[in-house]
Amino acid sequence: MPDPKDSRYHETGFPSLHWEEEDLPTRPMPLHERPLQARIDREMAVVAEHHVRIALAIEKFWGHRDCVEYLQKLIVSGGDSDGRARAGFKSEVLSALINLVALHKLE
Q1: How many structural domains compose the chain?
Q2: What is the mean pLDDT of each run of 10 residues along the chain (107 residues)?
Q3: What is the spatial distance between Cα 91 and Cα 6, in angstroms, rounded to a whole number?
Q4: Is the pTM of this model over 0.85?
């Protein structure tokens, strides 16, 4: 049982929900605090897992103005630059594409 004088715990022995972040020895790093390249790599890995060809195209365009247009076209129309129609993307892929648009604008 924790020390009853420790203000981080209630009398019940359960941790208080009102801890200050400085009191925590470690904490998971939220996605928005990760370095930009780590965030890009994470989203690209999701796309590559399901659509290797699309991931390669994004890598080719990354850093160019055309990249955002390509990503937006994928998101909105579901088609790619070859005119192939898609049935749609899984939710995690769609989320990764949307995040990549936002991350590209941060660079």
Answers
A1: 1
A2: 54 55 59 79 95 94 92 80 66 95 88
A3: 44
A4: no
